[in-house]
Each structure stands twice: as C-alpha cells, then as structure tokens.
Write a structure and sequence with these properties.
The complex is a heterodimer of chains A (173) and B (404). Chain A is of the alpha+beta class and 173 residues long. Helix content of chain A is 28%, strand content 26%. Chain A has helices at residues 3-37, 43-47, 80-88, and strands spanning 51-54, 63-68, 71-77, 109-113, 124-127, 132-135, 140-142, 148-150, 162-166, 169-172. In chain A, the strands form three sheets. A four-stranded antiparallel beta sheet of chain A has the order 5-6-7-8, with no helix packed on it. Chain B has 404 residues and is mostly helical. Chain B contains 15 helices and two strands. The longest helix of chain B is centred in the middle third of the chain and has 32 residues, at 185-216. The chains are: A alpha+beta (173), B mainly alpha (404).
Chain lengths: 173, 404
C-alpha cells in the first residue's frame, strides 16, 4: 500500500469518527434538554406571573405592599410635595442617574419592586435620610422616587413592567 | 496537535499514578477479555444497567416536583403531567422505564437459565442477580403506590396484607409497615423514602454483580471455559459497539411505547384518586408481578399462598445445586432444552392467569402451572442431571472458527 493511499484511508476513518461523535453530541444534547428545562418555571407558575392591583382605596401619601412573583411590590400614592422633590434632584449627582419621569407612568403613583438592590432585603417605607425607603440590612437610603442616594446598594429600586388598565387598576407583569 | 496529545497523556498519567481510575476503566471496560462467541442475548446485562440509570435520573427529577402527602400526591402527579416543562415526557419515561427494566431483566434471567450461567463458579454472581431482582420488585411496588390512585392504594393494601398471614406477629408487622391501622399518610411517606433509597442499593449490588462477573468472566453460548487468549476478544470495541447497536433497537421500541402508547402497560383505574371506602372491581398488579400473583392465588390457603409466592423466587437461590448437570449450555442438553421452553411457557401462562379473575377454569390452570413451576426446579432438574446424556462438547470456543 502506497503512503498516499494510507493517509487517505486514515482521514476517511477519522472523518467517520468525528461525524459520529458530532451526531452523538447532538443526540445527547437533545435528550438532555428536557432534563434541564424541567427546572425552569412551570406553566402554573407562569400563569400566576401577572396580577391586577386595585388602587382605588389608596389616598394621597398612603402606600400599599402586594406580593408579585414571590417579592413585595410597593405602590405609593405620592403627594405633590414628594413629586416635586423627586423631580428637583440634579441627577448628575446620583449613583444611578435616572429622571423621575423615566420611573413612573403616572407621577402620582410610584410602583417599585421592594427588594434592595444590594443583597435582597426588603427596605422599610418612609424611613431614611431622603424620606423614601431605608434598608435595615446594610443601611441603603432611597428617595421618594425609589432611587439610591446613600449606602452600599448599586442601583435604584427596580420598576416592574406594568400598565394602567383604568384609573383604579394596575396590571403588573 | 502532536504536542497537545502528549500533554494530555502526561496529565492523564499524572492522575492515574495517584488515582488509578483510567487504568481501572481500561482494565474492566476496554481491554477486558470477553468470550469471542457471545450472541445478542448477552446484550441484556448492559441494557439492564442502562434502564437502571434512566430510572434513577428521571426519578430524581420527578422527586423535585412530587409531593408525598395523601392530600397532594395525586394532584402533584397531574401537576407534573400538565405544568412542569416536559414533565409528561419524564414521567412516561419513568413509568415505562420500570416495565422495560423488568422485561430486560427477565430476558437476562432466562438467558442465564438457558445457558446455565448460574453454575460453578458463578453461583454468587447468580445470587447477587436474584437480590437485585428482589430489590427491583420492592422498589417498583413502592413506586406504584406514589401516584396515590385507586390501584396504588389497593395494591398497597393487598400487598402489605400479605404479611398479616404470618402467624402470631402478622398483625403487628402490617401495622408496623403502615405506621397506623391502614394504608395512609405515614405509609405513603415511608414508601417514598424507600423508593428513593432502594435504587441506590441496587446500584451497590450491581457493582458487586459486575465484580463477581469479572472474576471468572462471562459465560458464553457454548457454556465451556475459555482455553486461552485465542478464545477472547477485548470488550472494546467489539462488545461496546454490539451493546450500542442493541441499545439503539431497545430505545426504538421503548420510545415507540413512551410516545404512542404510554399508558398501555398501566391500569386506567390509577387515574382515579385513591378512595379508602371503595375497592375497584378488578385489582391486578403491574404485569411484571403477574406470575407471582398467580402463584399466590393458586393456593387455597392464606399463609400457604404467601409462602408459595416467596418460594417461587427463593427457589432460584438453590438452582445452582438443584441443577445437577455439569454441562452449562442447553445447546448440548437435548432434554433440558425442551424443559427450558416448557418452563418459559409455564411462566407466561402464570402471568396470563394472574391477569384473569380468580374463578372457574383460571384457578385450575393456575394450580397446574404453579405445580409445574416447582416440579421443574425441585424434581425435574435434579433428576435430569443424573439421567440426561449430553451431546459432545466442543474442545474450545476458538476451535471451530480457527480450524479452517
């Protein structure tokens, strides 16, 4: 057998090996995916991922906490005073610069996920140096727009996706 | 390319020098000398191992979504079927995987019976196999209770009541098994724990089974010992490929059932939630218990039936000594070969009458079949070894092939 023929034979064999190996990887991945995906949120969990909140009873200055996807959600009916205060801040000075306008759909109602962006504790309402929220775990202060002003938290309190279904109902999720 | 190959080899050698996993695997799954003449009936050992693995993987996953409580168990199964991503697939694989595990193991056992794989020096290998079968039965039974349907509940009630047949302490034992005065929440929760635990014991016994196997090597269709290296071939690539090829066939059949007839082997009554006030009209165990169930019902006495049923399995432990013939393979035992097939048919008949109501002609058939079952092991096999004249054995495995 000539040298040329030998190497040709060898490359055909290694091609078959690599092709079967590749097919094997595809097959095992396809079979393995359901075993991994089963740990993702199931259909009943997904079905409960959207809630409606009635805010008709919420008078100015009051706030309400509801549970959404296992986390507390703050809905605050802000006074004109608080709105003005939130708007007057020079956002250049903030750790996480965001205008108040970007954070609300209707300036009267602030909707926030009540989970501190530091390590996940629930901040207390109407506490702290900026009249917003204060996280007791490591001392993060949030203002009346839910923005981080002082303390270790890196980001503003998160805003969930929501829409106003009508004047008195918010659809969250 | 060459240098990176050298580096990989260096790392492997470094590890292997300290923890010889690579050389152990090479010794027992690659170079391992295997008889050159194994036929496809020898595929079923590795197939059984495969299905054990499938059961453990899918079972661990199901346990993440299942709730072992009488108020929630049935609903949590429906939750798995409807809500959990691919939950229906994983549960159907687990349900039918149990059946296929038994099919494969029963074929594996009958392979052993035909080729005399239980004979010296493989008696302990055979024993370990029977222990695996017993553990499998306990695991499968308790697994069937978990969905908490009507068949789960009444199956559990009937099987645990078997123990009440024991004289004097029978009632205490059943109450101990139940954790109460009937099958109830404590029973379900302990069955769940044991159903999770036993498969890992099976894995342990399987390891011993393989150690015992590799001590004297596989038996072979001729049933004669290997005379030298010319009678063996390395396990890899010859039998790895043969096993993989067989596996592809098994998986085709398996997934045909999983996808197109997933409830064929089950019982529809188990989709009715358990009701302690109402027994279904016709209770049958899962198909793999039917022959033993038939033996239980064939005996018109409570304790006698239970003893007969357990003896049907325990007689297998004595088989290496009950079969007095020194010739292993049925190929060279003309009469045993016939008896083997009669015994196989007898076992199938037992399975069939086990699925029928215990009345009329079925009782008579089950009694004859039960009688023959024990006749085969206790009378025919011991006598046969004395009187049967076997066909001449070949000189060696390689001879007929290499002679040319």
């Amino acid at each position: 057998m000539s040298e040329n023929k030998k190497s040709k034979k060898k490359s055909r064999r290694s091609f078959i090996h690599q092709a079967s190996g590749a097919m094997g990887i595809v097959a095992v991945s396809a079979a393995g995916w359901p075993l991994v995906d089963q740990m993702n949120p199931s259909k009943d969990v997904e079905a409960l991922a959207t809630i409606e909140v009635d805010i008709s009873g919420l008078s100015e200055g009051q706030s309400k906490t509801v549970l959404w996807r296992g986390k507390p959600l703050f809905i605050k009916h802000r006074s004109q005073n608080e709105i003005d205060e939130a708007k007057s801040v020079n956002i250049e000075e903030l750790p996480h610069p965001e205008n108040d306008d970007e954070r609300v759909k209707n300036p009267k109602y602030l909707v926030l996920i009540g989970v501190c962006t530091h390590l996940g504790c629930v901040p207390a309402s109407d506490k702290g140096d900026f009249k917003g929220w204060f996280c007791p775990c490591h001392g993060s202060h949030y203002d009346s727009s839910g923005r981080i002003r002082k303390g270790p938290a890196p980001k503003n309190l998160e805003i969930p996706p929501y829409t106003f279904k009508d004047d008195n109902t918010i659809l969250i999720g | 390319m060459e240098s990176s190959k050298k580096n990989t080899k260096g790392i492997i050698n470094w590890i292997d020098y300290r923890l010889p996993v690579v050389s152990f695997l090479k010794h027992s799954a690659v170079d391992y000398p295997t008889p050159r003449n194994l036929n496809y009936w020898w595929n079923f050992g590795s197939l059984a191992g495969f299905f054990l693995l499938v059961q453990i993987i899918t079972g661990v996953i199901l346990s993440m979504h299942y709730t072992a409580h009488v108020d929630h168990a049935f609903d949590s199964i429906e939750h798995i079927m409807r809500n959990v991503n691919h939950g229906w697939l994983i549960r159907y694989i687990h349900m039918n995987g149990a059946s296929f595990f038994f099919i494969v193991v029963y074929i594996h056992i009958f392979r052993g019976l035909y080729y005399g794989s239980y004979k010296a020096p493989r008696e302990l290998l055979w024993w370990l196999g029977i222990i695996i079968l017993l553990l499998m039965m306990a695991t499968a039974f308790m697994g069937y209770v978990l969905p908490w349907g009507q068949m789960s509940f009444w199956g559990a009630t009937v099987i645990t009541n078997l123990f009440s047949a024991i004289p004097l302490i029978g009632d205490n034992i059943t109450q101990w098994l139940w954790g109460g005065y009937s099958v109830d929440n404590p029973t379900l929760s302990r069955f769940y724990t044991l159903h999770f635990l036993l498969p890992f014991l099976i894995v342990g016994v399987v390891v011993l089974h393989i150690v015992a196997l590799h001590t004297h090597g596989s038996n072979n269709p001729l049933g004669i010992d290997r005379k030298g290296p010319q009678d063996s071939i390395p396990f890899h690539p010859f039998y790895t490929i043969k096993d993989l090829f067989g596996l592809s066939f098994a998986l085709t059949i398996f997934f045909a059932v999983v996808f197109f007839a997933p409830d064929f082997l089950g019982h529809p009554d188990n989709y009715i939630p358990a009701d302690p006030l109402k027994t279904p009209a016709h209770i049958v165990p899962e198909w793999y218990f039917l022959p033993f169930y038939a033996i239980l019902r064939a005996i018109p006495d409570k304790l006698g039936g239970v003893i007969a049923m357990f003896s049907a399995i325990f007689v297998l432990f004595l088989l290496p000594w009950l079969d007095t013939s020194k010739v292993r393979s049925a190929t060279f035992r003309p009469i045993y070969k016939i008896l083997f097939w009669i015994f196989l048919i007898d076992a199938i008949i037992l399975g069939w009458v086990g699925s029928k109501p215990a009345e009329g002609i079925y009782i008579i058939i089950s009694r004859i079949a039960t009688l023959y079952y024990f006749l085969h092991f206790l009378i025919l096999l011991p006598l046969l070894g004395k009187f049967e004249r076997n066909r001449p054995l070949p000189e060696s495995i390689g001879k007929p092939v290499l002679a040319e």
